[in-house]
Amino acid sequence: MKKFKTTLLALGLTAVLAGCGNKLTTTKPVYNNSGMVAVIKGDASGKTVSYKAPTKTGSVKVHNGKYVVTLPMSTKAQKVTLKANGQTATTKIKAATAIGTYSVVAQQYNQALVMTAVPADTLKAMQAAQRQGTPTQAQIAAMTPAQQQALLKQQQEFQAALTKAKAAVKDQQLPAKVEGLKQVVKTTSSTMRVNVQDGELLSATLSAPVKALKGSQKDNQFGIEFGLLANALGADAKKVGTQFQKAIKDQNGSQTTIKTITSNGVKFDVGFSASELFIYMTK
């Protein structure tokens, strides 16, 4: 009997020690969003950690006792449940603030993009006509036949230029509707990704190969795309561009990020890899 009790005690102790050996922790009780995602880190026993959140469910591998889970940001706070080796842990992710309504941003970006494809002389004429304003029916009636004909010809030329410009940038335009974390545009100079939840744009990322920035023509194209997106988000593209160029110039070879640039509430975070540049836009 004594031997039996000793055996039970030994088995119980072994179970307790085994349980103590299993570990699952998070580095924070609440996480902020960073860039386009939220990153959860921690320590865990075993080979994998499974996770469940409103935006994503899956599992990740454990390396040297540590794990990293990457989740899309959301307009709502998220509760994340993690499991590994019979252990359960929970953490939270703060709600993200939308930069704007995606459909509005996309419309403004696309309209501005079309205008960049209009010939310079035609664009100048369009801007002059816009400043003068659209003539009223009474004003048109007061014109001579020659003036009316000239006005009609000008309007037809403007419409033809816009139609041609729209066709030229068709593949570079943002889609009318997007939901989730998606790549929306890929050009020769950059790739654009957005995170849209319930029609609200939470973040946008513009990335480009570092080598693509060295040629003046491609550099200019990347600058145009960056400026159009910044303006569509409500930022002052000119000021952001100036600060961006200065930061790139002042950056040393060992840096992988530069200080956050903020304009009208929109944050621009820039990161570098060996071959690519990333600009993360959030609020």
UniProtKB/TrEMBL annotation:
Keyword terms, alphabetized: Signal
PROSITE patterns hit by this protein: PROKAR_LIPOPROTEIN
Record keyword Signal present: yes
Top-level division of the source organism's lineage: Bacteria
N-terminal signal peptide: 1-18
Name of the molecule in the record: Lipoprotein
Organism of provenance: Lacticaseibacillus suilingensis
